Amino acid sequence: MCEEAPLMEVLLVSLLNGLVYGMLLFMLASGLTLIFSMMGVLNFAHASMYMLGAYFAYSVSRVIGFWPALVIAPILCGVLGALIEMYALRRVHRNGHIAELLFTVGLAFIIEKGVQMAWGLLPVPYRVPPVLDRALFHIYGSNFHAYRGFMFLISVLMFVAIWLLLTRTRIGLVIQAALTHPEMVGALGHNVPRVFTIVFAGGSVLAGLAGVIGGNYLVTEPSMAATMGPIVFVVVVFGGLGSLAGCFVASLIMGLVQTYAVVLDVSFADLLARLGLHVTSATPLAEVLTMPLPRVGALLPYLMLILVLLLKPRGLMGTRDT
Amino acid sequence: MSGGAIRTAARPVAADGAVSFLRRQWPWLAALAFAVVVPWFSYDWSTGRHSGFIVSMLSQIGISIVFALSYNMLMGQAGLLSFGHAVFLGLGGYVTAHVLNATKGGAVPLPLELTPLAGALGGLGFAIVLGYFATKQRATAFAMITLGIGELITSCALMFQTFFGGEGGVSTNRMTGHSLFGLGYGAPIHVYYLIVAWTALSVAGMLFLTRTPLGRMANATRDNFERAQFVGYDPRMVRFFQFALSGLFAGIAGALYTLTYEIVTYDTVAGPMSANALLMTYIGGVGVFAGPVVGAVLIVLLQSWVSLLSNSWLVYAGVLFILMVTFAPMGLTGLVLMHQPIWRAGRMGRLVGPYLRLLVPALLVVLGFVLAVELCSFLTIGAAQGKSFTLSRITIDPRGAGAWLVAGLLLVGGGLCLRAAMRGFGVAWSAVTEDVKRAEVRA
User: Fold this and answer.
1) Which of A7-21, A257-271, B111-125 has the highest mean pLDDT?
2) Disulfide check for B170: which of A300, B128, B151, B165 has CB 3.0–4.6 Å away?
3) B182 and B53, same structural domain?
4) Residue A4: is its pLDDT beyond 70?
């Protein structure tokens, strides 16, 4: 373990990074929560929209710069999402839930292969715009990057926008009602298919936006959807179906957990050592006990997923079981 | 096979039983006979060797059949969508590799022919442990738990050295010197026949299981789990037993995998392998017992032949999958079975014309799609690998507009023709089915 002062530094810097990452996750997960809650379909292609957002932004920003791309790429994703919902998903819906879910699995697969064919197998050089490529402020001698501040700003703006849309507009109220009682909303005469299309397109816009601002912060590569997908699922399940607030809390928790798991270099052996038990290579399960936390970090989201589904399938603030 | 055998064994007249067994199970016996003979079509008499490509492909088909059928025990028979089925193939494979290494060291004198039992026990054991958790839920929650388990085990396989061998995997050697028949198993053809035997056993076992009360209750919980509860069965226990047995057969597939390739790496437990099971099962058809067999044969053939010709065979497999999900959720065998009433009524002749009219535009669309995909792939991936797009000695430049224009024309023109032909086919189909129904009512 570290000394007192550096530990504080590590904890505080990681807190900021974790919040930024958590907000990025929320941008992805909010759309998925809405889609999952309303349609009952786990959309495996949601993270693919995030990837497409990043790739569209890369291509657009090479021609006319980052700022137009910030608007154009999410819109492209939204249009694609609307088309998918209207012309494919609605058709597959007749074949049942499993077919619908499998359709999105196949779609995610095709999008990954399509991205590989269109942009190549290697990561593309999608970079942070030069204006934001500097330190915003210093904390304990380490820089806080301006782009992270920008990401945080965008996600907060998005959060406020969704909040206003859902609570202050008519369509927002219909969506909120459809989250918990989709059949009742249809019975009241609302055009539920159209609401579905709007939500699917809106979710795709959010995922695309997350891709635009996350693609250059992380890496823009064909496997980015596959790495992000399960983490977003965990957030949605952990937050609970039908609850955006739960999704928000779950996103932040997941962001912090993943960030802290990378920086805290401890293992079970260290904990046992504090209790006076020393692990040697002869100890049973020595390999498991000495595994440092940063290497176990990759496992944590999946462990959380399994535990939540087993112990509390309703999630943090969910209104019904997954 | 043995389902019929066991039922007929109880009958007093043995000859009668044999005849009815033959009449009932002849497609399986014919398939088995074909599997035994087929490597000899590729036998090169001048060198006295089998074609390595063919034998390795056939072995892969055998492994895939067991794997896909074990997957269908969950998906088709119990209605459980799993995203982590490869875990049991892979863990069965790891266990087999360790057992083989122990046999080589002289610790366990297990004959090579029986090592798949080790894989089966490994698959069963892990399926009992992991299935205990996974089967607490059903439907989407079950699918997500299996997804989590799959990712968890894959990460573990990369992390831990002692059991999984880390990134390098576990290597082994099948020539342990222990054999029931004194065979060395150096030649791939020996292993192929071992695979045929174990595949036949596993297929028979799984077919038998569909006829047991467990298999029937799995169907019942799939169709209506609440009613199954009312009857007095615990759907969770049904799911659990089905999951555990499915893990057992996946473990056998894993053992056969280890015997064929003599190395097990984290790929065997990872997501793409699970997706493969899903692909084979769904394309073949989940509603019929033989569906996954058809899917496994087809996908391995596609994989082996198309991947020789093209970089992008996965794109074709994916598109095929999406088309099946959208238009034919019962898979290829389901499509064939749709024709059964028409065939029985002797009216298939009336569909020949519409089918032929469908064929030409469909071929045009496929051609246009393949051309477009290949052009796209050569533009990026092919260019990065320094390959050029040659078609029977004509080099096509993917940057030129000509080829793209041809692809576009084929797609759009063929698509429009296909739409018109589909409409015509729909009319003909409903006319024939109406006719068949009316004939049935009259009879």
Assistant:
1) B111-125
2) B165
3) yes
4) no
Shortest Cα–Cα distance, A6 to chain B (Å):
29
Interface predicted TM-score of the whole assembly (ipTM), two decimals = 0.84
Q: pLDDT tens, B392-414?
A: 666 777 777 778 888 888 889 88
What CATH number is given to the structural domain containing A132?
Answer: 1.10.3470
Task: Give the three-class secondary structure for B171.
Answer: strand
Is A169 near chain B, with CB under 8 Å? no
Contact B216, B50 (CB under 8 A): no
Domain range for B378 is: 339-442
d(CA B192, CA B49) in angstroms, rounded, equals 14
> The tokens of B160 are what?
């831990």
Q: Do B81 and B2 lie in a common domain?
A: no
Q: Could you tell me which residues come within 8 angstroms of residue B4 by beta carbon, excluding any fewer than 6 positions away?
A: B20, B21, B24, B25
The CA-based dihedral angle spanning residues B122, B123, B129, B130, taken in that order and rounded to the nearest 10 degrees? 140
| pLDDT above 90 for A283 | no
Which of B71, B87, B136, B145 should one mutate to test binding to chain A, selecting the residue with the greatest count of A CBs within 10 A?
A: B145
**Neighbouring residues of B211: CB distance < 8 A, sequence distance ≥ 6:** B3, B7
Q: B354, B347 in Cβ contact below 8 A?
A: no
Report residue B137: phi and psi, to 5°: -115, 165
Write out B278-324 in H/E/C secondary structure.
Answer: HHHHHHHCCCCCCHHHHHHHHHHHHHHHHHHHCCCHHHHHHHHHHHH
Give tens-digit pLDDT for B292-317: 999 999 999 988 888 777 777 888 88
Nearest CA-CA distance, residue A228 and chain B, Å:
12
Asked whether residue B334 is domain-assigned, the answer is no
* In a shared domain, residues B54 and B117: yes
How many other CB atoms are there within 10 angstroms of residue A321's CB atom? Answer: 15
How many Cβ atoms sit within 10 Å of the Cβ of residue A142?
Answer: 12
Is residue B295 a contact partner of residue B281, using CB atoms and an 8 Å limit?
yes
Q: Does some domain include residue A127?
A: yes
B103 and B247 within one domain: yes
Which residues 147-206 in chain B show a CB within 8 A of chain A? 147-149, 151-152, 155-156, 159-162
- CB of A307 less than 8 A from some CB of B: no
pLDDT number for residue B3:
41
> For the segment B99-130, what is each residue's pLDDT rounded down to a tens digit?
988 888 777 788 888 899 999 999 999 999 99
Residues 6+ apart with CB under 8 A from B150: B83, B84, B85, B86, B87, B269, B270, B271, B274
Token representation of residue A64: 């006319």
Residues 6 or more apart whose CB falls under 8 angstroms from that of A131 comprise none
Helix (H, G, I), strand (E, B) or coil at A25: helix
Q: CA–CA separation, A171 vs A174, rounded Å?
A: 5
Residue B83 located in a structural domain: yes
